[in-house]
Every structure is written in structure tokens, then in C-alpha cells.
């Protein structure tokens, strides 16, 4: 009797261990898949200088600037960057009309005084765009003025982004569309 009870207990333990192991593997694979997305934010750039350079380029090319504000810590930021890179229709609209930059913002890494001041200045320059969450898209005209802030949640579909919504956003904010 004792042996049968021990065997049953052992079988339950083994089955439960296999379930836990399987779930652990699935979690590791999903985390690894997320990490497989290309990191697009340069954390060493001064974001204010990055914006100034993009505005100068946009002015010379008669384009607008789109700042994708977020960071490599943000899975939705990396998904969006991957999405627009792979969708040729969207990437062509962006290339023709915008200087597109990934502006790094990491409120958790703004502990030291210089970084905190820089993060505060960035949000002030972008009209507190972070209030919408991340990523957030800020459209600047060729003079560097904020003309639109786009909450990315309106562009989402399921666990990704909707091509029609994203394309509509970019087409609505081209220099030609704004200056009709």
C-alpha cells in the first residue's frame, strides 16, 4: 500500500515538474523572441541634439521630423520600428516626407541630476508627449515646432500595429497634407 501511494505521489510530482519546466521554456522562448527585435534607440545620444540635427536636415530637405519617443526597454517601441521597416508602403511614405528618428527616453535611468534635467528638457521640448505612454510619436515642422503628438495605442491592432491606421497617421501629417 505504501509503495503504491509513493508511486502515485512520485508520478504527480514528475507530471507537475514537467508542466512547470514546459511553462518555463515557453516563457524563455517568448522573452527571447521579444529580445530578437532590433534595438533602435541609441542611449548614448543627447536627445535634444539629435532633434536639432534632424530639424536641420528636415529643413534642408523640405520635410518634417517624426520623433518616435521611447526606448529599447519598450517592447511596443521595438515592435513599431520593426513593423515600419518591414512594410514597404509605410517606409516609402516615411522616406519621402520625414526625417524619422528614435529618441531615447528612459525615465527609470534618469536618476543622476544631469540625466534627470535632460529628460525633463526633452519632455518640455516635446510638449510633455510622454503623457500618452510609449512609444509616442511627435511630428515637428521644419522649424522644429511640435505640430502633432500621436498616441500609439490608436495605431495598434492585437499584439501589433494596423497598416491602415499607421499609413493614415503618416499621410495625414506629411508637409503636403498639412500645407494644403
What are its keywords?
single chain, 180 residues, alpha+beta, 4-stranded mixed β-sheet, two-stranded antiparallel sheet, 7 helices, 6 strands, extended
The proportion of residues in beta strands is 15-25%
The major beta sheet can be summarized as:
4 strands, mixed
Say how many strands there are.
6
Which residues sit in consecutive blocks of at least 5 with pLDDT less than 50?
A: 18-33
3D shape: extended
Structural class: alpha+beta
Mean pLDDT across every amino acid position:
87
What is the rounded Rg? 23 Å
What is the N-to-C succession of helices and strands? Answer: HHEHHEHEEEEHH
Number of H/I helices:
7
Distance between the termini: 87 Å
User: Helical amount among residues, as a percent range?
Assistant: 40-55%
Looking across the biggest beta sheet, what order are the strands in? 2-1-3-4
Amino acid at each position: 500500500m505504501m509503495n503504491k501511494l509513493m508511486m502515485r505521489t512520485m508520478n504527480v510530482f514528475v507530471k507537475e515538474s514537467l508542466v512547470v519546466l514546459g511553462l518555463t521554456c515557453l516563457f524563455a522562448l517568448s522573452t527571447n523572441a521579444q529580445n530578437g527585435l532590433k534595438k533602435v534607440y541609441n542611449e548614448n545620444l543627447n536627445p535634444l541634439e539629435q532633434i536639432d540635427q534632424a530639424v536641420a536636415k528636415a529643413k534642408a530637405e523640405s520635410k518634417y521630423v517624426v520623433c518616435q519617443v521611447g526606448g529599447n526597454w519598450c517592447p511596443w517601441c521595438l515592435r513599431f520600428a520593426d513593423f515600419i521597416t518591414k512594410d514597404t508602403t509605410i517606409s516609402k511614405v516615411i522616406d519621402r516626407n520625414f526625417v524619422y528618428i528614435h529618441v531615447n527616453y528612459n525615465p527609470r535611468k534618469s536618476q543622476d541630476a544631469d540625466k534627470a534635467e535632460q529628460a525633463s528638457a526633452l519632455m518640455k521640448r516635446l510638449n510633455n508627449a510622454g503623457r500618452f505612454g510609449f512609444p509616442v510619436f511627435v511630428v515637428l515642422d521644419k522649424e522644429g515646432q511640435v505640430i502633432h503628438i500621436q498616441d500609439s495605442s490608436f495605431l495598434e491592432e492585437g499584439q501589433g500595429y494596423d497598416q491602415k491606421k499607421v499609413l493614415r497617421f503618416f499621410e495625414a501629417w506629411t508637409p503636403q497634407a498639412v500645407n494644403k
